[in-house]
Amino acid sequence: MKISYAWPHLFLLLAATATAKVPAMAKVPAIVVFGDSSVDAGNNNQIPTIARSNFLPYGRDFSGGKATGRFSNGRIATDFISEAFGLRPTVPAYLDPAYNISDFAVGVTFASAGTGYDNATSDVLGVIPMWKELEYYKEYQKRLRAYLGDGKTIYTISNSLYIISIGTNDFLENYYAFNSQRRTQYTVDGYQQYLVGLARNFIVNLHGLGARKISLGGLPPMGCMPLERAQNLQNGNECMETYNIVAMSFNQKLYDLTRELNKEIPGLKLVFSNPYFVLLQLIQKPSSYGFEESQRACCATGMFEMGYACQRSPLTCTDANKYVFWDAFHPSEHTNKMVADHVMKTALYKFI
């Protein structure tokens, strides 16, 4: 299988982006986020689901040591992206009662941990489906208009950066799950095509609501997550290459989708933000980037735990900056920053 991404001199690029500072700018008045746990800042705290992280040790390195509902020891990638665009250092959750429209006017996330493009994925843990995230966005537009007035609202909507980060759960929590219905309905390639169709519809609908600058996020090397490695006993806990191949294949389809939609929709500026290769480098050569551990996570044993399983474990590491992963599924704050710096340099620079 041929993957047509060109990442020349990746090691030099990573070294540069690790310390790069993007100058503040005013071209993007707000960051608006849709997706899953990679970009959820606490929406799931407000719904009845076990897919939560609003308790320690989550958030222990966040400002004030607060467990906000981010699946990290600190900030997540979209927080760093917001800061890089000269906006606030965090992007708050839309359902968080601690914030109001004055906060959301410069940044908001509708993301829900455990969700996916596929409605069947959100049903697994009873979380917010993507169609509902879009409904919340419509409500947000009305609130924004009441707060800013028509003129400023139109400017904000058309000039904001919209970030979509989703898809991993569709495969790991749905398609590859035990007794998966989707696996009886689709081949893996067919399921990828089905998800790409859903992604296309979402972007078209978002554009119809006024969005013009959109970042479509790709999948990470999901076979290298500690949870997947821990289950790969027959191959010595190495990465599950089958899952990584699926991620690369799906990313290629999403990349192709961005090219198609940019040609089809006048005025659309759609970019593909790919975290796959930067994360793979951190995982394969952690010491080159200041990490000490990339196979196990910081939380608990670092092999299986996430969410409530991370609570009160005496095994949790003392310095999460030394770990590529915070829990068995999610990157540490330090990794999130490196990924954010990387996508700023390789994709989001087009909006500077």
Unreliable spans are: 1-26
CATH architecture assignment: 3-Layer(aba) Sandwich
Form type: globular
| Beta-strand content | 5-15%
Helix content: 40-55%
Given helix and strand content, the structural type is: alpha/beta
- What is the fold named in CATH at topology level? Rossmann fold
Total of domains:
1
- Biggest sheet, spatial arrangement of strands: 2-1-3-4-5
Mean model confidence by pLDDT: 93
Rg: 19 Å
What string, H for helix and E for strand, traces the elements in order? Answer: HEHHEHHHEHHHEHHEHH
CATH-defined superfamily: SGNH hydrolase
According to DSSP, the number of beta strands is: 5
* First and last CA, distance: 34 Å
Q: What would your notes on this structure say?
A:
41% of the residues lie in helices and 7% in strands. The protein has 352 residues and is of the alpha/beta class. It has a five-stranded parallel β-sheet with strand order 2-1-3-4-5, with helices on both faces. It has a single domain, classed as Rossmann fold. The chain is globular and about 60 Å long.
Characteristics:
single chain; 352 residues; alpha/beta; Rossmann fold; five-stranded parallel β-sheet; globular
Write the layout of secondary structure elements.
Elements: H1 10-19, E1 31-35, H2 77-84, H3 101-104, E2 107-109, H4 119-125, H5 130-148, H6 150-159, E3 161-165, H7 168-175, H8 181-185, H9 188-208, E4 213-217, H10 226-230, H11 241-264, E5 269-273, H12 276-284, H13 333-346
Parallel strand pairs: 1-2, 1-3, 3-4, 4-5
In short, what is this structure?
The chain contains 13 helices and five strands.
